[in-house]
From TrEMBL:
Keyword Oxidoreductase in annotation: yes
Protein name (record): COX15 protein
Transmembrane segments: 25-42, 54-73, 93-117, 138-161, 197-215
Keywords: Heme biosynthesis, Iron, Membrane, Metal-binding, Oxidoreductase, Transmembrane, Transmembrane helix
Cofactor(s) needed: heme b
Statement: the UniProt record of this protein carries the keyword Zinc-finger: no
Bilayer topology: Multi-pass membrane protein
A single Gene Ontology CC term: mitochondrial inner membrane
Protein's GO biological process: heme A biosynthetic process
Organism: Sclerurus mexicanus (tawny-throated leaftosser)
Domain of life: Eukaryota
Length: 238
């Protein structure tokens, strides 16, 4: 209110406050949804030794995610003397919070599916190994694209250019490397951050499409083929 939104009403503040409060409460419910059943299953002796390690890792990651969320929000509340920047959380901490959430979600899904679905035993052919490598590479690229989106959000970089495929009137904007040193542009220059996110997004869609086309040449189980097709469909929607 003092730094930016001088005309904010109490009702508008309450809307923001309840959004934040609901997010925190939901995060705590998620934590309890992990920890309480885990403690019960552990006590009943229903967890194998490898699964106990997974459960401990997931519960630890849930707690770390909550701590990281607090650390992120704290950066937006710190006083910055002699600064006229718009009050916002650190884009680095925002990316870390999102990244840990994606890791937690992926690990939870992987663990759950490993328990629910029997593993297919396929011959380790050259094509299958290449498909697996491509899938891992595509996963890493999608993860990197999502993290770059956190930097876009943290810097309000989406407001800089709103035309596509060009940025304004140019393919490569003039202020792409305006900051010094050059490496700083990747994380702190809104133009560069938006440019990188666009390139990574296009690269992700291309990689998913290539993975799908490559998978069509290999005899795969129905479940695997359905997963690859679903990945392409979700990538197009995204």
């Amino acid at each position: 209110f003092n730094s930016l939104n001088h005309d904010m009403t109490l009702t508008e503040f309450k809307f923001i406050w309840y959004m934040e409060y609901s997010h925190r409460m939901w995060g705590r419910v998620v934590g309890l949804a992990y920890i309480l059943p885990a403690a019960y299953f552990w006590h009943r002796g229903w967890l194998s030794r490898p699964l106990k390690g997974c459960v401990l890792a997931l519960c630890g990651l849930v707690c770390f995610q909550g701590l990281l969320g607090w650390y992120m929000v704290k950066s937006g509340l710190e006083e910055k003397p002699d600064s006229y920047d718009i009050p916002r959380v650190s884009q680095y901490r925002l990316a870390a919070h999102l990244g840990s959430a994606l890791v937690l979600y992926s690990a939870s899904l992987w663990t759950g599916l490993s328990l629910l679905l029997p593993r297919h035993k396929l011959p380790e052919t050259h094509q299958l190994l290449r498909l697996r490598q491509c899938a891992h590479g595509t996963t890493a690229l999608i993860f990197l694209t999502a993290l770059s989106g956190a930097f876009v959000a943290g810097l309000d970089a989406g407001l800089v250019y709103n035309s596509f495929p060009k940025m304004g009137e140019r393919w490569i904007p003039d202020d792409l490397l305006a900051f010094s040193p050059v490496l700083r542009n990747i994380f702190e220059n809104p133009t560069t951050v938006q440019f990188d996110h666009r390139i990574l997004g296009i690269a992700s869609v291309t990689a998913v499409t290539a993975l799908y086309l490559f998978s069509r040449k290999i005899p795969l189980p129905r479940r695997t083929r359905m997963a690859v097709t679903s990945l392409l469909a979700v990538a197009c929607v995204q």
